[in-house]
Amino acid sequence: MADLITVDDPDDPRLRDYTGLTDVELRRRREPEEGLFIAEGEKVIRRAKDAGFEMRSMLLSAKWVDVMRDVIDELPAPVYAVTPEVAERVTGYHVHRGALASMQRKPLPEPAEILAAGGSGRRIAVFEGFVDHANLGAAFRSAAALGISAILLSPDCADPLYRRAIKVSMGSVFSVPYARLADWPADLEKVREAGYRILAMTPSPQAASLDQVPPERFERCAIMLGSEGHGLSTHALRAADEWVRIPMAEGIDSLNVAAASAVAFYATRPTRPA
After folding, report:
1. Distance in angstroms (rounded) separating the CA atoms of residues 270 and 274
2. Quick one: angle between helices 257-267 and 133-145, nearest 10?
């Protein structure tokens, strides 16, 4: 059973994991270096726990103690009970969900491990330059909902375990395996060698419309999407086996990348016999 500890001092060193949560640059450095991430809200905390992440501690306002009682009773990590005012001074913002947990990261799998898994109909996603945490989290949520087996990230992609990405994904970052490709875009050749057909999502008129691509081309495919605004780099496009696009109404050239990922994942899902 966890210890419930009331803390009144926002400078208490025991709350260090939660300090300055709105300082993006600080948290980007600290969290991976110290092997932690922050889960926010009851559902996300429970999903992190159920995914097997070890809890370092929880920070709760008083009204959330009873709601989280089963988690408190199950885990040995300390639980810090604070007022909303103390929580805001520690974190830098109003913690309206009232519950935060500091979780221990797990080692990321190697790309080869992800590529070796699954059968012939397996689909994975490849993200290049997803630097916006909200877009990354939304794309993970779509991937989880629409049957994407795993995600590979270019080296410059944002951290899926950053608080904003976790929050937008509603914890889907815990359920979709992911890894980082170290050598971009050369490592895309390893994706092809593993038997995946690389489909580059691009609004280019030279790309085939998704609704006109034969369904068999989506079997064991890697759906590659680029950053918001710039899209896929020239190098990534050259490394693809095929370019595909979402057909647009006249005068509209593209969707937000998170929305585009949802459309692409839905359009490429396995067809079922009538």
Report:
1. 13
2. 10
